[in-house]
Design a protein that fits this description.
Blueprint lengths: L3 E3 L2 H5 L5 E4 L3 E3 L1 H11 L4 H4 L1 H7 L9 H6 L1 H8 E3 L2 E14 L7 E15 L2 E12 L7 E11 L1
Parallel strand pairs: 1-4
Antiparallel strand pairs: 2-6, 3-6, 5-8, 6-7, 7-8
Length: 154
């Protein structure tokens, strides 16, 4: 799927209530999980101890940190939408975020988005993007919620 190109508030607004697109699939392997554990100092065994997870975890595998899954949002979002003509972009907040299903090591995930709400706040474009991070071949998403971004158009 091609990225949606946005150059103004009005170009964003016409997509209200519509799916904006989906990203490519990204592999969540043990190396990525280990690097995230090192970066966040979260070395809980369910994420990093492969042998213990096989023996003791109900999933029989290590799983990605929930926040690792969330941290992929900007990278995956950039694959869906290219917003031009801006001075600045601010990640403003997250609402209604739920971790629905663990991401087992070796799974692939992707982002699916819909423009939930848009407002013009004195020249600042406030968007609420409903998102789901899906796991390949799974019905329930790994994560879903609403991400709020502020776009400062030129």
């Amino acid at each position: 799927m091609e990225r949606l190109v946005i150059n103004s508030y009005n170009e964003f607004a016409v997509h209200l209530g519509k799916e904006l697109g989906h990203s490519d699939w990204v592999l969540i392997d043990q190396g990525r999980i280990n690097m995230f554990a090192d970066a966040t100092l979260d070395h809980q065994w369910i994420h990093v101890d492969v042998e213990r997870a096989k023996a003791e975890s109900p999933y029989k595998s290590t799983i990605a940190h929930g926040y690792l899954t969330l941290s992929l949002l900007p990278y995956l979002w950039n694959q869906i939408v290219e917003v031009n003509n801006i001075k600045m972009l601010v990640n403003y907040g997250m609402d209604k975020m739920k971790f629905g299903k663990p991401v087992l090591t070796g799974s692939r995930v992707r982002l699916v988005t819909t423009l939930h709400k848009i407002e013009n706040l004195r020249g600042i474009c406030k968007t609420e993007i409903a998102f789901k991070i899906e796991i390949e071949n799974e019905h329930k998403p790994a994560l879903e919620g609403i991400a709020t971004f502020l776009y400062y158009f030129n």
